[in-house]
Amino acid sequence: MRILFVNLPSALEVYKKTNVRAVTPSYPNLSIATIAGNLPGDVKAKVIDLDFFEDFVSALKEKIKSFKPDFIGMEIKTVTFNAAEIVSGVIRENYTDIRIIAGGVHVTTFATDLLKTNYFDFLVIGEGDYALNKIFNNEDDFNILDLKVSLEENIKKIENFSKTKSNPKYTNINDIAFPKWDMFDITKYYNSRLTARANPVGLIETSRGCAFQCNFCNKNTFGSFYRTKAAERVVEEFRYLKKVGFREIHIIDDSFTQDLNRAKEICERLIKIGFDLPWSMFSGVRVDKVDKEFFSLAKRAGAWSVSFGIESGNQEILDRIRKKTKIAQIEKAVKAAVNEGLNTFGFFIIGLSGDTEKSVMDTINFAVSLPLDIAKFDICIPYPGTSFYKELDEDNRLLTKDWSKYIVHQTDSPLFIHPNLTWEQLSYYYKLSYKKYFFRPKYILKRFVRDIKMGDLLFEAKYFFTSILNA
C-alpha cells in the first residue's frame, strides 16, 4: 500500500502579497507527520510539499509518476480549499485508479456539502490519527465518510459526530505515535529572525482542545474537550525533535497553559535534563493561565519567546467575543513575561463582533501601551464553523465564499459587511495599527539597541522597508 501526502500550497499564496510577507511561517506539516507516524510499517508513505513549487501541478504529476501511490491524502484548511480542488481535478483527470482522502478543519465543517461533490473518495471528520489504517483495511469507523455508500448513511454519521464531538480512542493522546519527521527534508524550512532564533523549526503539540469559547475560533476538529500529553511524554518528544535535526521548537497548542501545573512540570523536566534548544510558545497562551513562576521556569528551560492572544484593548469587546479575560490580566501577564526576560509577541484583531471605530482605536492604543516586543494586527476573518461566521451569514453580511480570499492580512477584497465598520474603515485601521505601533521613536530606539545586541539589525531593516512601510 502506498500513500502520497500532499501539503497543499498555502504559505506563499496566503502571505506573499501582504505586509507580513517578510515573516512568512515555514514548517513541515505536523498533521501529516503525525498521521504518518501512526501508519503500520507495511504502508509506504511519502510527502510532497507544494509550497516549494511555482508550478505545483507539474511537480505533483512528476511525484505521482515516480512513486505510483494508491492513495493521495491531504489536509484542507479554508484558505487551501481552492488548491485542493485543483489537486483533486488533476488526479481525477489523469489517475483514475488513485483514491483521494481528505481531512482537516474545512472538511469537518463542510462535510455534508463535500459529500455531494466528486472531489474525494473518503472524508475524515474530526481527528484522523487512526482513520487511514481503517481505510486501508476496508474497515468502517465513526469519523470516516466513504463516498461509495449512500448519502443518507454518511449524513447520519455527520449528525452523530456533531452531537458527540469526541470518541474514546482520542481521549488519551499519549498513545498517538511520534510524528514521522523523516518524511520531510526539514532543511528546506526557514523562519525569520523575528519568529525564530535558529532553523529549522519543529512543531510540537502537547495538548488538544480548548475549554474556552471565543466566537472567532473554529473548534470543530478538537472541540472543547481539553486533553494533554503527560509531561514526561512531552519532554521525550522535545528530545526526539532535537534528534531528527530541528534546532528550535514551537509549541502550537490552542491552550498550552490551560493546565498550568502541567506546563510548569514540563519546564522543570526540561531544566532537569539540561535541554539546550530554544523554544517558543508561538501560538499564544491565555493571559489568565500564566504566572510569574511559570515564566521564570520557562525561561530557565530554554523558552525565548511567548505570544499572547490579546485580541482587543476594549473590555466590552473582550466580553462580547467571550474571551473571558480582563484588561488588568493582560497587563499583568505581559509585564511578568518581560520581567523574566522573555521576548513578547501580542496578537490583536480588528473588526471583531461589536467593534466600533472607538473600540478599534482602544485596541491600537492598548497595544502601544504594552511593553511588547512585537505586535501583530489582523482583520477578523469569519472562518466557517465559527460563531462569527454564523452571525454574519445569518444576517446576509458575507460578501463572498471564495475561500482563497479568506486571508487575515489582505485588505483588497471585501469579505463581509461589518455591522459598525465599512471594509474601507477596517482596511484603514488595519494599516494604521502597524504604523502607529512601529513608527514610535521610543520603540524604534528600543528595537535598534536590541538588534545590535542580537545581530538582527539587517533583517529588521529589511522587514521595516518591505513590510511596515507598505502597510
Word description of this protein:
By secondary structure, the chain is α/β, with parallel strands linked by helices. Helix content is 39%, strand content 15%. The chain contains 18 helices and 14 strands. It has helices spanning 11-15, 30-37, 56-67, 81-94, 105-109, 111-114, 131-136, 151-164, 231-243, 260-273, 292-300, 315-320, 327-339, 357-369, 387-394, 423-438, 441-454, 457-466, and strands at 2-7, 44-49, 71-75, 99-103, 122-124, 144-146, 201-204, 207-208, 227-228, 248-251, 279-285, 303-311, 343-350, 374-379. The strands form 3 sheets. It has a 6-stranded mixed sheet with strand order 2-1-3-4-5-6, sandwiched between helices. Strands 7-10-11-12-13-14 form a 6-stranded parallel sheet. It has a two-stranded antiparallel ribbon with strand order 8-9. The longest helix has 16 residues, at 423-438. The termini are far apart.
SSE arrangement:
Layout: E1 2-7, H1 11-15, H2 30-37, E2 44-49, H3 56-67, E3 71-75, H4 81-94, E4 99-103, H5 105-109, H6 111-114, E5 122-124, H7 131-136, E6 144-146, H8 151-164, E7 201-204, E8 207-208, E9 227-228, H9 231-243, E10 248-251, H10 260-273, E11 279-285, H11 292-300, E12 303-311, H12 315-320, H13 327-339, E13 343-350, H14 357-369, E14 374-379, H15 387-394, H16 423-438, H17 441-454, H18 457-466
Parallel strand pairs: 1-2, 1-3, 3-4, 4-5, 7-10, 10-11, 11-12, 12-13, 13-14
Antiparallel strand pairs: 5-6, 8-9
Helix pairs in contact: 9-10, 10-11, 14-16
What attributes characterize this protein structure?
14 strands; 18 helices; 471 residues; alpha/beta; six-stranded mixed sheet; six-stranded parallel sheet
